[in-house]
Design a protein that fits this description.
By secondary structure, the protein is an all-alpha fold. It contains 16 helices and no strands. The protein is elongated, with a radius of gyration of 22 Å.
Length: about 220
Amino acid sequence: MADDQKILIGLDFSLASKDVLEVLIDDIDDPAVFDEIAKANVHRPEILTMLLEHADTPAGVRSFISGHINLPVPQKAAEPRERPEEMRRESLTSKIQRLSISARIQLALKGGREIRGILARDSNKEVMLSVLENGKVTDSEIEMIAKSRSVLEEALRRISKNREWMKNYAITLGLVNNPKTPPGIAVTFVSDLRVKDLVALERNKGVAEAVRSAAKRLLTVRKPK
């Protein structure tokens, strides 16, 4: 799937399936997204009803919906979500796992932090890489991906090419110390590390010898005589 096609699918709420939108509204970072979804689906009563029944839908969006479907509009949903956090996450994970690859790509591009965390570990390459294209992904999330031993090599390559992300020391440190990072990439960032982290890197048996050697060479220059 081409990048422009993925972005189009990710942005167009009017084309998203009910299953995708159901998962999306369970983990919305910005309440304004409820309004976007409602306005994009004024001709889909099943979506408007779903929004109306959701505990987190803002009152203003409920009022908007009332002009498009013939249903009572409560200010709050009848059954607010009060499940333990672990149970809620398991439910969200189960819903996501049942979706198609294209649906998971949509969620990766538009989902909230919890959805991104789940899909960052997705077994499908396109899904996992789409998380990196989500405009709301944070440095702390990128740091976790950079440190992950199960992440795809391509994801580490993409992170290394993003100048803004690589300005974050924790991301740089995680990338250099990750055995999955190609040595040719890791070596280019060794010089950005502090002395104490170079010492640890030189002793890190998990990384390539070339990376450890680069750390050793720098230490001979930087360590006090």
